[in-house]
# Entry
Amino acid sequence: MKKTIGAVACLALCAGLVWAARGQEGMPMPKPQKEHEILKQFEGNWDSTVSFRMSADQQWTASKGVESNRVIGGFWLISESKGDMMGMPFTGIGQTGYDPYKKKYVSTWVDSFSPVLSVGEGTFDGKVLTTSINSTDCETGKPCTMTMTQEFKDKDTVLWSMRMTGKDGKEFECMKGESKRKK
# Structure
C-alpha cells in the first residue's frame, strides 16, 4: 500500500515538473474554463437526506449523511460522503471535472459498499448536471449503466436522483436525495 501511494505521489510530481518545464519553454499551463465554474457551486459542507431501493417494487429506505466538497486547481471537485446505510457506516469518494477535449463532465466514484470503480460522463444544461455512469453490477459481475441528475433548487439546495435498469430490463429510480449547504 505504501509503495502504491509513493508511486502515485511520484507520478503526480513528475507530471507537475513536465508541465512546469513546458511552461518555461513557452507552452502555457492549462487554465480552468467557464465549464469548470459549475464545480465551485458544489463547494462546502452539506447535510444530505438519501432514499434508496434495489428494485422498483421495494419500499424506499432513508438515511442521512454529510458531504464535504472542495475544488482543487479550479479543475476538479473532490467529494467525500459519509453516513449510515442499512445500519452500517458508509463512505464514498468522488471526483468530477470537465474534460475540454471530450467536451463532457467526467467523474469517478468509489465507496465502502462496492469493490468496483464507477466512471461517468455528462453534460450541464445550465441547471441540471446529467451523468451517464458505467459500473459493474456487484450481484452479477456484469456491466451496468446508471443515470444521475443533480439539480440546484437554489444556491444552497441540490436535488439529485439516480436511475438504473432492473432485472426486468426496465429503468427505475434507485436513489434520490436532497443536500442542503451547512451555514
In short: The chain is about 15% helix and 55% strand.
